[in-house]
Structures are given as C-alpha cells and as structure tokens.
Amino acid sequence: MNKQLVLQTDFGLADGSVSAMYGVALSVNPQLNIYNLTHEIPQYNITK
Q1: Which pLDDT tens digit goes with each residue over 1-48?
Q2: Residue 20 lies in a domain
Q3: Which residue(s) pair with 6 in the sheet?
Q4: Which of 39, 32, 38, 31 is nearest to 15 (CA)?
C-alpha cells in the first residue's frame, strides 16, 4: 500500500521551497503519493 502525504504550508510558490520538500519526501519514499492542499495560507498562520 502506498503512503499518502498532503501538504499545507505558508511557503507560497515564488521560490523552490515546495519543490525541495517534494525532493526530500520522495528521497525517503519514492513510492509516496503527494497532494497539495495549499501553499498560499497567510504566513505563520497554518490554522487558517
């Protein structure tokens, strides 16, 4: 069974932060399914 990872961050999409996170996660488990919930929530307010 493949593992699932859902990402919710305040990183935005202007730089390579999300891509770096993908790379690290996939280096740990290449079979991982990654889904993006959002990367545009207000900075430092991950409860939104």
Answers
A1: 789 999 999 899 999 999 999 999 999 999 999 999 999 988 887 676
A2: yes
A3: 35
A4: 39
| Phi/psi of residue 41, nearest 5 degrees | -75, 160
List of residues 6+ apart from 2 with CB closer than 8 A: 31, 32, 33
Is 8 inside any structural domain? yes
Identify the CA nearest to 13 among candidates 32, 35, 34, 41: 41
| Helix H or strand E encompassing 26 | helix 17-28
Confirm whether 25 is domain-assigned.
Answer: yes
pTM of the model: 0.77
